[in-house]
């Protein structure tokens, strides 16, 4: 019996930004894309597990640029069919949770929009210090929710993140569209 459904957030519950962070930074700084791009991935990775904070991130990029996060996420939208699924799961007394690789500035914007309010629990990489696909991230969530892998479904839009979940007995869904997520989760629950 399914007791919990765990959702990745970006790309599953909401659309990801249309603009790349690197492009925005090139527009707002005196740096070239070739200077920014090699730094950006590793710095965001470190920030997503709290190895560095936002001030350190900006320092390593050569100074803070206001409004970058907001610009990056300006056109994001929540996937209504997935939100409706979450509400239905909760009415069935199935715990709903988020497990997301993210950074504090993004999480703050999403929280201010009220997008996390639909879920019983929210596990963010920068808060728990673990990122998918590290199996410890999934083990942490299972422990916190008080469920076994066999009692869960995990949904992500990145195939690499599903393998560790499967190895723990979690049923998985590779998200390709909001309607497909709703359909496959319903099939797994019924």
TrEMBL record:
- According to the lineage, what is the superkingdom? Bacteria
Name of the molecule in the record = HAD family phosphatase
